[in-house]
Design brief:
354 residues, globular, 15 helices, eight-stranded parallel barrel, single chain, alpha/beta
Length: 354
């Protein structure tokens, strides 16, 4: 059994170009993905400056993206993070939200997502205020599916350290107050979960009163620490039995669009193959499909360096790797070279300002 598969483009860092995104859309659609949710943290008109519309140029780009995703047979969604909308949720905020939801509808969305991730959470009546905002937007949109992401979107205590102590009963209250049709994104026991298992998902579904849509923070590599690595291995630690406990499974992509497609191709394999799934064989199959035999073989040989050793400890290996990939005319090889040169390495300041 395979759940709805998707990509939630909701990371920090450099926004993909239109060509990069077009490649990802075509690749995932051909692999059987069902939806694409657009909400990069660096798109300020969806986050820090959510009250203002996209520019005419950006709006036209998003209309083209919507048409591309739908033509490929997937649902297109956009994610709004209404910073400051819950406290206060007043007449002005309602008017601003109504205007922005209408603007997203005009772009052409099948799914509307209202996100509260990576925002302060130590505020009074948090679950009730957030549910009120989501339900208000759900009542306005023409989208036929509505999603939200809580402030506390994992059991991980790091969220309490960074965003304030989560209110008692937060998840249960949110699930009780949200409209029944709203889907809730959830990352697992950790923000970047090493394993996601049926028992955990069943417990969260019971608490929320609905199955979650998995927001899988892999192969994402944003932030000052993770951007030093390229997450290329096939998916591991995800049980195909999870399908019985979730409404969907979406990956959060890496900064590198072409390289993202390698692990992304292994998600449908995991569910389709079940107990026969082998992550090593899945990587080989996906890498050959995306890169061809030669580049795939090189990447497999260097997988430990890219994924486990990382940029800070390359040392003398860096020059060898540059020579090894510089003679290959392939966009994935160019992404590797860009990473080797440090072009996609992030700082804490970038995250804080997005």
């Amino acid at each position: 059994m395979t759940p709805d598969l998707g990509l939630v483009e909701a990371r920090f860092g450099r926004i993909w170009s239109e060509d990069e995104r077009a490649h990802v859309v075509a690749t995932l659609a051909a692999a059987g993905y069902n939806f694409y949710h657009y909400g990069p943290k660096a798109d300020r008109a969806l986050r820090r400056d959510w009250r203002r519309p996209h520019s005419a140029e950006d709006g036209a780009m998003l209309m083209r993206l919507s048409a591309r995703v739908r033509a490929a047979g997937m649902r297109f969604g956009m994610a709004l993070t209404p910073v400051g909308a819950t406290h206060p949720f007043d007449d002005q905020t309602r008017a601003d939200l109504a205007r922005r939801v209408a603007g997203l509808d005009a772009i052409g969305i099948d799914d509307l997502a209202i996100f509260f991730d990576d925002l302060r959470g130590d505020m009074p009546d948090l679950a009730a205020r957030q549910a009120e905002v989501v339900n208000f937007c759900a009542g306005l949109t023409k989208a036929t599916r509505v999603y939200t992401c809580p402030t506390y979107y994992a059991d991980d205590r790091i969220l309490d350290v960074v965003f304030g102590e989560r209110p008692a009963g937060y998840l249960a209250d949110l699930g009780r107050l949200l409209a029944p049709h709203v889907q809730v994104y959830w990352t697992g026991e950790e923000v970047c979960a090493r394993a996601i298992e049926p028992a955990h998902l069943a417990r969260v579904a019971q608490e929320l009163g609905r199955p979650v849509c998995l927001w899988d923070n892999y192969p994402v590599n944003d932030g000052s620490r993770m951007s030093r690595f390229l997450h290329l291995r096939a998916l591991t630690g995800r049980s195909p039995a999870n399908a019985a406990h979730i409404s969907g499974h979406a990956l959060n992509p890496a900064i590198q669009a072409h390289l993202t497609c390698i692990p992304a191709l292994t998600l449908p394999m995991l569910y389709q193959q079940g107990e026969a799934y082998s992550y090593g064989a899945a990587f080989q199959q996906a890498a050959r499909r995306m890169l061809g035999d030669d580049l795939a073989a090189r990447l497999q040989e260097d997988l430990l360096i890219f994924q486990d050793i990382g940029h800070e400890r390359l040392g003398a290996r860096a020059d060898r790797l540059r020579r090894r990939y510089d003679n290959l005319d392939h966009p994935a090889a160019r992404e590797i070279l860009r990473w080797l040169e440090g072009a996609d390495l992030m700082t804490d300041d970038e995250v804080q300002t997005q």
